[in-house]
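Q: What structure does this chain adopt?
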Amino acid sequence: MIGDQCPRESDILEAIAFGRWPDGCRDLAAHAAACEMCADIVEVALALHDDREALCRAAQPPSVGMVWWRATIRARAEAARTATKPISVLQAIAGACIVGAAAGLLTVVWQSMHWMDRLGELAVQLESRRADIATASTFATGHGLPILIAVAAGLVLAPLALYITLADD
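A:
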């Protein structure tokens, strides 16, 4: 023996790993019976080899058809995700257009509110036609509230629609 190892140790491990122990190597079996270190190695290596063989027999890998089916399903799912990316971009652009349109509508409503303020000032200046202008102002104010409510609803619903559009399922 050299140091703590026997020179035949690797031969014994190889014979056990390849299933040639003990029938295919009588001289190694005789050496293991005489060498205490090799006898320990044989005992441990046989236990590990037997456990490996038992686990390999007990393993139940999926069938080839099942593996193929799963790979096909995965490929289809990836293709679907790839196909929906441009749609998501277009949905984001549509959401931005909705927000832009709502901002434009809000601007128009805001400007009309300034116009109604000027209309009120004009009503004060024109005493002779005050009753007619007051009636027109009341009519505009009565219809301005529904427009304001519609714009407010659009401003509330636009971010919600954008969220629903851009949310990944």
